[in-house]
Amino acid sequence: MVGVAPNATIISIRQSSRAFEPVNPGPGDPNSDEKVKAGTLNTVARAVVHAANMGAKVINISVTACLPASAPADQRALGAALWYAATVKDAVVVAAAGNDGEAGCNNNPMYDPLDPSDPRDWHQVKVVSSPSWFSDYVLSVGAVDATGAALDKSMTGPWVGVAAPGTHIMGLSPQGGGPVNAYPPSRPGEKNMPFWGTSFSAAYVSGVAALVRAKFPDLSAHQVINRIVQSAHNPPAGVDNKVGYGLVDPVAALTFNIPPGDRMPPGAQT
């Protein structure tokens, strides 16, 4: 993602790579232990702590682990890492909501009219999107298209906070650094695949968070998130599980008169 916060300093931490996980480890191989593999919930947790300890004031997580709500994995390390980054190190943590149909990610119900006491429909969650579901400490981002309409493939859930562009994305090529807007073909005969999805939407919002932190250095991480949420363009219902509180507006986030709100997330202990 390019063009949102061009003067931001970027710390790149690779936690998911096939180059750093064992290939067919044999019986008894210590590398078969999940803790040393890349791309697990534990490596995400370690990457979050590492970024926070390096002084990152905005942490973007454009990876999603989708798990059945009936059989969630052990996420204590990740939850503790997110709490540490958001409350102790005062980092704004932004995460992709996930893409429906990818790696076990499926849409959750939008709203249960029979239970108005649960407007975000937490009780009907079927698939957990992590780290997004740690919504006290993470700003989860859904995706919209160029018209501002929610992408059908943007995963729904009660943790979604805001939405941002997830199509017509420009980025930098890892091979040479030039601008690119699509993945190259992986097999002969295939065509380029345009960038799309909530991973890019999250990066967009991370750029907005960087701008807000630069203009309002006295705001805490939670107050930065509050400013982004309060200045978003709300959906018809005010909030829903597809786009959260709506499409982010960078100009409004930087210029509107918005009360700062609480310095810490609800229930945070220091």
Automatic annotation (TrEMBL):
Residue stretches spanning the membrane: none
InterPro entries: Peptidase_S8/S53_dom, Peptidase_S8/S53_dom_sf
Organism encoding this protein: Mycobacterium europaeum
One Pfam assignment: Peptidase_S8
Sequence similarity: Belongs to the peptidase S8 family.
PROSITE patterns per UniProt: SUBTILASE
KW DNA-binding (keyword) present: no
GO molecular function: serine-type endopeptidase activity
Domain Peptidase S8/S53: 2-246
Record GO biological process: protein processing
Protein name (Swiss-Prot/TrEMBL): Alanine and proline rich membrane-anchored mycosin mycP2
Keywords attached to this entry: Hydrolase, Protease, Serine protease
Cellular component per GO, a single term: plasma membrane
